[in-house]
Amino acid sequence: MNLFSTFIDLIYPPRCPICHAFLWGKKARNDLEELPLCQSCFDSFREIASPLCPICGRPFTPGIEEDHVCENCLRKRPSFDKAAAPYLYEGDLMTAIHEFKYGGKSYMVSALGPLLAAFASDWLKERDDLILMPIPLHPKRLRERGFNQSLLLARHVASRLDAKLDSLTLRRTRYTKPQTGLKSGERRRNVRRAFEVRNQKALRGKAIVLVDDVATTGSTLNECARVLKRAGCKEVYGLVLARTSMR
């Protein structure tokens, strides 16, 4: 298999999906895992670190010294218990996610999926009772895009955690505008009552991890969590690849 892969690489030299540089001997490494992108692009991904909100996971701007609950979570506690992301949504990573999500480049999950999976294995390392659920797309949006990027990411995480993946119970029943470009209040209204749960009995007392690519205000995560909690879920967590800071 290694010989075959080497032969294929000679005919079709691998390139970084972000900057398109050749990857001969230049692949990035995450822990002990080799990634199909260049080290330069990987090094530009800025990791989220304290200070941040321990509930929504959103990082604070410089000048804040320690973690504390943000104003939004104090004013109205989210329906999810906690949310977290490994990276800030900016620069090369923002470009990569945009190409992955809107450019039809589903193959980019081979670079992005392992990053989210590695973070999840550390963040959720004490849990072995979790069910992973990707944020669902409306059938019309799925036909337009051709794939659900959240499901592709969730498969990597489920494999890494050896966890159950459920992509059918949570459904999107209302076609909504893209959240991009909408203000905070508009985002909340846009996804209100856009999701429903099938087979509620199967979710009673369960712990769910919602998986998505990006979170900004967290409105989509929050609405999905609200629906899942009403269906009887005991805990709901949000796991996303990247999110914005509090600016």
Can you tell me about this structure?
The chain has 247 residues and is of the alpha/beta class. It has two domains: 1-44, no CATH class; 47-243, Rossmann fold. 36% of the residues lie in helices and 19% in strands. It contains nine helices and ten strands. It has helices at 2-11, 39-44, 71-75, 91-102, 109-123, 139-145, 149-161, 184-191, 219-230, and strands spanning 27-30, 33-38, 82-84, 87-88, 130-134, 164-165, 170-172, 195-197, 207-215, 235-243. The strands form three sheets. Strands 3, 4, 5, 6, 9 and 10 form a six-stranded parallel beta sheet that branches. Strand 9, helix 9 (219-230) and strand 10 form a beta-alpha-beta unit. The radius of gyration is 18 Å and the shape is globular. The mean pLDDT is 89.
Strand-helix topology:
Elements lengths: L1 H10 L15 E4 L2 E6 H6 L26 H5 L6 E3 L2 E2 L2 H12 L6 H15 L6 E5 L4 H7 L3 H13 L2 E2 L4 E3 L11 H8 L3 E3 L9 E9 L3 H12 L4 E9 L4
Parallel strand pairs: 3-10, 4-10, 5-6, 5-9, 9-10
Antiparallel strand pairs: 1-2, 7-8
